[in-house]
């Protein structure tokens, strides 16, 4: 390994982060971690990769070893296969935990190549998959820093899908009211103010969820958008809930409620667990849900039929109290 290999790649990581932040988050560049100052450590991973960890600091000259990287003692929790584009998320989760990486730090797995005299020459002999691996890790670290700067709980599974980062501040306001992402359940239902049947149904669904230490919320509970945009407000709720319940009924109106259908599709596109809770008399099935298991209740006997389907679903998710 050439002298200063780790130093070269530590600064390459910093420069890549700098470029992405300047392009996508210029308003935050003055407070973005590691861009002002950092120290770094390096580790050998099975002779084919070098793990480089940048440690954010307030100021000062970057410092780190230029000798042989430290060895990593892998344990049984390490992924079985060598790092690749399919398992890189698991590798980073594992190494971040093992090396006690802070939210404001950066960790990347760099393919080790003999022969290059500088970063540009190393990069030229990377395979296309190795280049993809680099770009994917930059994305992951940028996302970690983004959530860190916005004050989100880094231990939860919360994430904002691409294109929705503009809702970060609104999501933070929702989390001020409902701080535990892993307990938030988004209720998808028809909105008809003053309808006694729907009000009773909503009340009973919430009762069952709260009895099992979950936090049911609906998009009409509170407006979090400063511009009061209805769809974006719904997106805030859907992004900030780990689970969802979509209520299917067509006795109030003879239709598959389009809002419920849209919200269900959004939640499932994010791979969030969603219960389809269908009234026994529901007639307006659509092709996109016919193949999905539904749990039934009787809207004419809400008190007597609502507990069983929800509790069955919670048991399947291993979250029944």
TrEMBL record:
Top-level taxon of the source organism: Bacteria
Record protein name field: Uncharacterized protein
Native species: Cyclobacterium marinum (strain ATCC 25205 / DSM 745 / LMG 13164 / NCIMB 1802) (Flectobacillus marinus)
């Amino acid at each position: 390994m050439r002298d200063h290999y780790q130093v070269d790649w530590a600064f390459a990581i910093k420069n890549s982060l700098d470029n992405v932040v300047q392009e996508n988050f210029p308003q935050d560049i003055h407070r973005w971690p590691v861009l002002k100052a950092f120290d770094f450590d390096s580790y050998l991973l099975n002779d084919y990769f070098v793990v480089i960890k940048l440690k954010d600091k307030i100021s000062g000259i970057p410092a780190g070893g230029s000798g042989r990287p430290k060895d990593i003692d892998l344990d049984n929790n390490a992924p079985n296969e060598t790092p690749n584009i399919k398992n890189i998320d698991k590798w980073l989760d594992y190494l971040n935990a093992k090396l006690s990486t802070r939210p404001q730090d950066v960790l990347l797995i760099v393919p080790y190549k003999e022969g290059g005299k500088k970063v540009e020459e190393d990069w030229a002999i990377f395979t296309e998959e190795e280049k993809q691996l680099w770009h994917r890790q930059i994305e992951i670290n940028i996302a970690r820093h983004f959530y860190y700067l916005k004050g989100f709980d880094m231990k939860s599974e919360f994430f904002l899908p691409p294109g929705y980062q503009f809702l970060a501040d609104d999501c933070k306001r929702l989390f001020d009211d409902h701080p535990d992402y892993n307990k938030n359940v988004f209720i998808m239902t028809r909105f008809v103010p003053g309808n006694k049947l729907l009000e009773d149904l909503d009340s009973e669904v919430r009762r069952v969820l709260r009895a099992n230490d979950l936090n049911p919320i609906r998009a009409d509970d509170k407006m979090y958008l400063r511009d009061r945009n209805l769809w974006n407000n719904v997106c805030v709720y859907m992004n900030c809930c780990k689970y969802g319940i979509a209520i299917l009924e067509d006795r109030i109106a003879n239709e598959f409620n389009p809002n419920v259908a849209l919200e269900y599709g959004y939640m499932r596109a994010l791979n969030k667990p969603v219960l389809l809770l269908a009234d026994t008399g529901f007639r307006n099935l659509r092709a996109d849900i016919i193949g999905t298991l539904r749990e039934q209740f009787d809207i004419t006997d809400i008190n007597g039929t609502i507990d069983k389907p929800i509790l069955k679903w919670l048991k399947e998710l291993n979250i029944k109290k």
